[in-house]
Specification:
117 residues; alpha+beta; 3-stranded mixed β-sheet; 3-stranded antiparallel β-sheet; 6 strands; 26% helix; 35% strand; elongated
Length: 117
């Protein structure tokens, strides 16, 4: 299950952000997850919960934004959402597409409280 490894990496990055931005606590981590990323959102959420259980990050919410596949057609230069992984331009029928969105696996934000001295 590579989702557990990904969850662990997200936690490590969030901890570094806490230090870099002097956050005393974390509330939420936002992740953008593309349909072509190869990551199962439910498995990632479960893995994150398991990896943070009984830690200082146990109450941190993982907000997963799922992104559909989008492509630009090289024949007609129009963009469209790719539905059901059928890579054919709905405008002109061409198969010459460039994927423009849907491969993301990004941390969009880390939200927390700044430490006060």
């Amino acid at each position: 299950m590579h989702e557990l490894q990904i969850a662990t990496e997200i936690i490590d990055i969030a901890r570094r952000e806490m230090i870099d931005h002097q956050l005393g606590s974390l509330e939420e981590i936002g992740v953008v997850l593309g349909a072509l990323s190869g990551v199962d959102p439910e498995a990632l959420a479960f893995s994150f919960e398991a990896a943070t259980k009984d830690t200082a990050l146990a109450e941190v919410r993982l907000n997963i934004e799922q992104v559909a596949v989008e492509a630009r057609c090289n024949a007609c230069n129009r963009e469209a959402e790719v539905e059901k992984f059928v890579f054919i331009c709905p405008h002109c029928g061409s198969r010459d597409l460039n994927i423009t969105r849907g491969q993301e696996l990004d941390i969009a934000y880390v939200r927390g409280e700044v430490e006060t001295s």
